[in-house]
Structure formats: structure tokens, C-alpha cells
Write a structure and sequence with these properties.
By secondary structure, the chain is an alpha+beta fold. The chain has helices spanning 2-8, 30-39, 63-77, 124-127, 141-149, 171-184, 195-202, 217-223, 226-232, 266-277, 298-313, 343-348, 357-364, 375-385, 421-426, 428-435, 439-447, 455-461, 467-479; strands at 17-20, 43-47, 49-51, 56-58, 93-98, 101-108, 129-132, 135-138, 205-207, 213-215, 238-243, 253-256, 287-289, 292-293, 322-327, 330-336, 392-396, 401-407, 418-419, 483-486, 493-496.
């Protein structure tokens, strides 16, 4: 019976809905539900239906009740002393017939971010509701302030922090960013600029009221020192953890923005974390594309995309900060602040509405992040391509957070790559030689015919399960003056030590 009624009403089983019997008048709680639906994902209110756990009872309303309820509903909805905003049109409120009985249906769409918060009464801090699987709940003042902040069309992250000078920015971070920028944009006119001018082009700094330069919010978060960032964002915290099943071991590795031995800004955090996130993404050693070794595949780009998006979409006034947890092949990336588009738009892609668009733009200049809103597409496509478990997004309205849960594994498909395993097998002498060598000798053997070796290549050549093992081997060879490191971040390579 329940399924038949839902089908007749064209409502899916998992659709947000609220059934109210409404025999004694328009229920007072209808306004909490109106606010919660408007501030979350929308939903449908059905008056004249009693809902049980697994069934409905259609009690119905009289014609007189329906007329009165409609009049009372519109009257209250248009009273600014009772409800902050009317986001409904006439067709959203209509009577419907189920069997031989009449009910009143009210469809509440999700409010545009410019209209949120939708609240009851005149005090948004006491009348703003949201909804999750447990029902309607009163929003915290912090969540309400976040909704007001999200109303702005002008990006909040370009706001100039008048009280700061450029001394709050980390010069090593700026230098590292410019090196990558120049590698990716050879001949770009910005490469010839002094740091101050370069940062102005990025909108990381701007002139303050006194005519001198101050960082913008984006600039402080991206290039600043954590100590100064927390002066503006007291809850700012970036945390990366590698955990295991052994309860006696708290974590295998951890880095966070308050350590004090590095800047603590979001760009350095991104650079530190991205190389560790994908340690368990194993790429078969034999794969080549156009004659070149394939080190990076779509999955690597998607992981970077996910981390950059979390950093660009975060509400840095929110609690608990950014949290990235890696446990074996499981990875979760969580940021404060809910999405600013509907879930349908979010999954469809192409309609990005980042909370910090200038931060996303600065990532984009170093080929990270998708301004066009296709980041979710990239993640979903990359995982589907490998036939891995579908990524899961958890939108916690109550905690005002978005969490992405991923599982990684052995790469099984690389578009456009050729498998050279047959060629290796054909050269039986070379294959036998490699098999009879120890791990250090394999690296030396490889470098005799190649200019350099990466951590990923060493991992596969030496048959390590993760990059951590290969990294230890390479570090040991550096200590023994056999190798030296060149480049940084994803461009890191290992070559023979010229002095050896």
C-alpha cells in the first residue's frame, strides 16, 4: 500500500517527505519542516496522511479543511514576522486525490544559497532548521553564520586583511609554488615579475586602505604561516593521519598544521599529503605510453583533485578543520562546510560553486583542481575505469561537513598505454638478470639504461607493495652516496651521484 501511494504521488521511497495527519488544523510543526527542507535538499509535506514505519494510512481532508489550510498556509508564509522568506509558487501547494480521499500536498524546493537561511520568526539564530535522516534539527549559530556568508556573490577569499603585512606569508612556500608555476608555464610573463607583483596577479595580495600591500584571505590560507592563519580563523586545522588495525598503535604517520616545523598553510599541506595518499595506487611496471613509462594515471589526478577540492570548498570558520585519514587502502577526505549546489547538480558536474574560488584558481595555475566543476566526474570516472568500489560522499548537515570515502588498489587499466611484458619476456637474458639481483642492484641496473628513476618505478621494479618501502631503499642509497635526489613533489627523481 505504501509503495502504491508513493508511486501515485510520484515520490521515491528515499525522497524527503513529511506526513502530517492535520485533523485539528494546520500543524505548527509544519514551519520547522518548511525551514529544514528549504535549507537542505527540499522535500514534500503531505497533510491528511498518517505514516507508520512501513505503511501509510490515508485519512484525508474535507474540502473545507483544504481551503482553510491553504489560506492559513499562504497567510503565514507571506508574513515576514513569522517566516523569513517565501520560496514557493502557486503550483507548489495543491490538493490531490488518493483513492476516494483528498489530501494537501506541499512541495518545498531547496532554497538558493542567496535565500538561505530560511527561518521561522525574526531571529535566524533561533529559527533556522535543517534536516537529516533523524528529522528536523535546529541549526547552530555557526551554521547560520556560514549560510549568511555563502549569500555573497563576491568571493570572500579575496577580502583584504588590512591588519596584516606580507611578513605573514611564508617565502619558502612562495618560492616552491613559483618553481612549479614556471615549469608548467615556460615563457609566461608572470615569471619575470617580482614576488609582490606575482602575488598581486594571483590575487593573493592586494593594496589596503593605506596604499600598501596586505594578503587576501586566499593568500593567507595558501601561503601564510599557520600561527597567523589562526588569528583570522581560530578553528583552522589541517590534519593527515595514516592509521592501522592495531589498537595499540595510535597512527603510523601523522602531520598537521600546528607542528611548527613547517608553514602549516594549505599549499604546503597539499604538497606533503598528495605523495602519501597514493602510495597504495600500484601501477604495473610494464605499462608505457608512446614509448615512455606511465607513472601517473587518472586515479592519481583524481586523488589530487579530491584533496584540492576539499581545501577550496572548506568553510575555514567551521569546526574540526580538514581531516584526511588513510587506513590501508581506505582513504577519507573531510572538510567543514556543506556543498553550495544541490546534490543533483553536484553529481552531474559542470556547475561548480566553490566557497573559495580564488584558492581553487591558484591550485589551477599549477594544474590541480577543476574550476569547471568536473572534479566529481573525474573521481567517479577514474574509479569506475579501474572497477574499484564506487566513491561515497557523506553530506552531514548536522555536522556541516562533507566527507569523501575512497578505496584504492592495483591499477588494472591505463587508457592508451601499451603493456611491454611481452617484450620483457622476449628479452629473456635481461629478465633473468633482473630476477637474480637484489633490490639495490635492480635500481643500479635500471639506471644504467635510464636517466633517472622515480619512487613509483623503484617500487614496481623491486616489487614493494607500497612506495614507503621503495622510499626507504632510495634514501639508504642516497646515504651511501650511490644516488642523489633531483626535483621536488611529483617531479622528484633519483639519479646516480656524480661524485661516486
Amino acid at each position: 500500500m505504501k509503495e502504491e501511494i508513493l508511486e501515485e504521488l510520484n515520490i521515491k521511497e528515499d525522497h524527503e517527505r513529511e506526513c502530517k495527519l492535520a485533523t485539528g488544523g494546520l500543524p505548527e510543526s509544519i514551519w520547522e519542516t518548511y525551514s529544514s527542507f528549504a535549507n537542505t535538499n527540499g522535500g514534500t509535506i503531505l497533510l491528511g496522511i498518517r505514516e507508520h514505519r512501513d505503511s501509510f494510512t490515508v485519512e484525508g481532508l474535507t474540502d473545507k479543511q483544504i481551503v482553510k489550510y491553504q489560506k492559513d498556509f499562504w497567510s503565514t508564509l507571506n508574513d515576514r514576522n513569522k517566516v523569513s522568506k517565501n520560496i514557493l509558487l502557486n503550483h507548489h501547494v495543491r490538493p490531490m486525490t488518493i483513492g476516494d480521499k483528498e489530501i494537501l500536498r506541499i512541495d518545498v524546493p531547496a532554497a538558493d544559497r542567496h535565500d538561505k537561511p530560511v527561518y521561522i520568526g525574526t531571529d535566524p539564530m533561533k529559527g533556522t532548521y535543517k534536516r537529516d535522516y533523524e528529522g528536523d534539527f535546529l541549526c547552530t549559530e555557526e551554521a547560520v553564520r556560514a549560510m549568511f556568508a555563502d549569500q555573497r556573490d563576491v568571493s570572500g577569499d579575496v577580502e583584504v586583511l588590512e591588519e596584516f603585512g606580507l611578513d605573514v606569508l611564508n617565502q619558502d612556500t612562495i618560492k616552491g609554488y613559483r618553481i612549479i608555476f614556471e615549469q608548467l608555464h615556460s615563457g609566461h610573463p608572470w615569471n619575470a615579475l617580482e614576488n609582490d607583483e606575482f602575488l598581486m596577479k594571483l590575487r593573493a595580495v592586494a593594496k589596503n586602505k593605506n596604499g600598501t600591500l596586505s594578503p587576501t584571505i586566499a593568500g593567507l590560507l595558501f601561503f601564510g604561516e599557520a600561527y597567523h592563519i589562526t588569528e583570522v580563523f581560530p578553528n583552522y586545522f589541517l590534519d593527515y593521519r595514516e592509521e592501522c588495525d592495531d589498537k595499540a598503535v595510535r597512527w603510523l604517520f601523522r602531520t598537521h598544521s600546528n607542528e611548527g616545523d613547517w608553514s602549516g598553510n594549505i599549499y604546503d599541506f597539499f604538497c606533503k599529503v598528495r605523495t602519501r595518499m597514493d602510495d597504495d595506487v600500484a601501477v604495473p611496471f610494464a605499462n608505457r605510453r608512446n614509448g615512455y613509462r606511465v607513472d601517473r594515471v587518472d586515479v592519481h589526478d583524481a586523488l589530487e583533485e579530491a584533496l584540492a577540492n576539499a581545501l577550496a570548498h572548506a568553510n575555514y570558520y567551521g569546526r574540526r578543520g580538514i581531516l584526511v585519514v588513510k587506513k590501508g587502502k581506505e582513504l577519507s577526505i573531510s572538510n567543514p562546510g556543506t556543498i553550495r549546489v544541490t546534490k543533483e547538480e553536484f553529481y552531474a558536474g559542470g556547475n561548480s560553486d566553490p566557497r573559495n574560488p580564488n584558492i581553487l584558481k591558484m591550485f589551477g595555475f599549477v594544474n590541480v583542481g577543476e574550476r569547471a566543476g568536473s572534479g566529481v566526474d573525474k573521481i567517479m570516472t577514474a574509479w569506475a575505469e579501474q572497477n574499484w568500489k564506487k566513491p561515497e560522499f557523506d553530506f552531514s548537515e548536522r555536522n556541516d561537513r562533507v566527507t569523501l570515502k575512497l578505496e584504492v588498489g592495483q591499477v588494472v587499466y591505463i587508457p592508451g598505454a601499451a603493456n611491454l611484458q611481452a617484450n620483457i619476456q622476449a628479452d629473456s637474458t635481461g629478465a633473468d638478470e633482473i630476477r637474480n639481483l637484489n633490490k639495490e642492484q635492480r635500481v643500479i641496473y635500471y639506471l644504467k639504461s635510464h636517466d633517472s628513476i622515480s619512487t613509483q618505478q623503484a617500487m614496481e621494479l623491486c616489487e614493494y607493495k607500497t612506495r614507503a618501502g621503495a622510499r626507504k631503499l632510495l634514501d639508504k642509497m642516497i646515504q651511501n652516496d650511490i644516488l642523489r635526489k633531483t626535483g621536488s613533489g611529483p617531479s622528484t627523481k633519483y639519479i646516480f651521484n656524480d661524485n661516486k
